[in-house]
Amino acid sequence: MNDHFNKLLQINTSGLGCWASIILAVFILTSVGLGWIIKGFVISVALLLIAPLIAFWGFQWWLKRKLILAQCPVCSYEFTGFKSTEFNCPSCGEALQVEAESFVRITPPGTIDVDAVEVSAKTIKEGN
Ligand SMILES: [Zn+2]
Q1: What's the 30 CA to ligand 1 centre distance in angstroms?
Q2: The pTM is what?
Q3: Inter-residue long-range contacts of 88-97, CB under 8 Å, 24+ positions, other chains counted
Q4: How far is the CA of 94 from the centre of ligand 1 (A)?
Q5: H helices then E strands: how many in the chain?
Q6: How many other CB atoms are there within 10 angstroms of residue 5's CB atom?
Q7: What spacing in Å lies between the alpha carbon of 89 and ligand 1's midpoint?
Q8: Is the pLDDT of residue 34 over 90?
C-alpha cells in the first residue's frame, strides 16, 4: 500500500510539474505571441480601414486620368467626359470626343477638314 501511495504521489508531483511547465510555456508564448497577435490584429484592422481609402484615392486618381472637364465646342456647356470614349453633350446633344484635353465634335467618316465644315455649317445656319 505504501508503495502504491508513493507511486501516486510521484505521478501527482510529476503531473504538477508538467502542468506548471505547460502553464509557464503558455504564459511565455502568449506574452511573446500575444504581442504579435495584437500587432497582427491592429495591422489587419488598419489595412481594413486604409484599403477602402487607398481604393478611393486610386479610383479618384484613375478618374482624374480618365475624366476631363472641358467645354462643349458647340454650346460652351462645361461638363466632364471620359477620355477615349465618344459621348453626347448633355446640353445640346452634339456627339463629342476628347482630343488634346478638350472636347471636339466627332467628324463624320470621310471628312478631313473639320473646322472648314463647321464654319460653313455655321454660316449657312446664320444666313438662314
Ligand atoms: Zn453642347
Answers
A1: 68
A2: 0.41
A3: 96/72
A4: 6
A5: 2, 5
A6: 9
A7: 5
A8: no
Q: Nearest Cα to 91, choosing from 108, 76, 106, 103?
A: 76
Percentage above 70 pLDDT, the chain: 68
CA dihedral (92, 109, 98, 65) in degrees, to 10, reads 130
Residues 40-71 have pLDDT tens digits of 888 889 889 999 999 999 998 988 888 889 99
Q: What is the distance between the alpha carbons of residues 86 and 52, in angstroms, rounded to a whole number?
A: 30
Q: How many angstroms separate the alpha carbon of residue 81 from the centre of ligand 1?
A: 12
Distance 116 CA to ligand 1 centre (A): 19
CA–CA separation, 72 and 95 (whole Å): 10
Extract the C-alpha cell encoding 82: 471620359
* Interacting residues of 72 by C-beta distance below 8 A, sequence separation 6+: 78, 79, 89, 91, 92, 94, 96, 103
